[in-house]
Amino acid sequence: MRTTVQHTEAYELSVAIDATRHGHHLRLESLVPCARRPERQLRFEALLSRDELAALQAAIGQALRAVDSAAATAAP
Length: 76
Known about the structure:
With 76 residues, this protein is of the alpha+beta class.
């Protein structure tokens, strides 16, 4: 499964997570589509257990809730 996280005309960041028999293979990849020879560059890679992947999901969820809370308190 690959999902684009950030995309502009000059840069793309995507995350790919594949299930393996040893765990979940997580990859963060970048792409510069306007480069002379565009190709994906591996930025981060890890083999995570289900619990580690769930902890990552919880951390991202906590960060999003903090952003939502700050936006709600800043709204008039």
